[in-house]
Amino acid sequence: xxxxxxxxxxxxxxxxxxxxxxxxxxxxxxxxxxxxxxxxxxxxxxxxxxxxxxxxxxxxxxxxxxxxxxxxxxxxxxxxxxxxxxxxxxxxxxxxxxxxxxxxxxxxxxxxxxxxxxxxxxxxxxxxxxxxxxxxxxxxxxxxxxxxxxxxxxxxxxxxxxxxxxxxxxxxxxxxxxxxxxxxxxxxxxxxxxxxxxxxxxxxxxxxxxxxxxxxxxxxxxxxxxxxxxxxxxxxxxxxxxxxxxxxxxxxxxxxxxxxxxxxxxxxxxxxxxxxxxxxxxxxxxxxxxxxxxxxxxxxx
Length: 301
Hints:
It is built from 3 helices and 9 strands. The protein is an alpha+beta fold.
């Protein structure tokens, strides 16, 4: 009896040992396969501000699965030292080639200007600068108040530039971490094309500028007629206030103006003049003539 129990115990131990050996073998093989599937990727060790040159102390190397590698990553940090970041790179974020200026680019504001664009600075105050809430990366429209001609002293306000990106407020080209805190600045740098730079220069010289902030997802082009004193005093209809951040399709439609139909005026009634009845002609004298079995009347004039 004891021999049977011993055999059962030994058989169970052998079975559990085989299962454990197979499990460990599979785990080691999968771990080795996972390790072979890893690649070195350079990430930011700390936050890298936009427009600054990357130094070795800001980088570190981590391992990423091969099937999860972003496009344009680097395996060695030596290739990144000296490159200029054109956007802010957060800590633990992979440093890709799309976030860096071409090799040999100088640091500062010039590195973040796209090809074909220019950077132009305009003076602002707390009113023009939307109380200091215009930060780098924001989108604005430029409104100018100007007299159309020297002889016509009737100022008109008109949107002259739309969907303009803010490159810097003051000397700061990096967006702050807390956008809720306004920053009082006296100048704002805008990203414009050469044609837009000419318009902005004339508008800032001949008129008064006003910056209007727009939603970062709103890329539509609005057509306006401009406003002068006469149209300003024409009044405006009250509209419903949309929810914060709502899209145009979600916003309530403005009430349509009520057009009242003009009262219909009945046309004047014309009197119909009836012709006077004509007098009946006098009866003529007639004589009845009998010819055999026939009778006929003969009228005399």
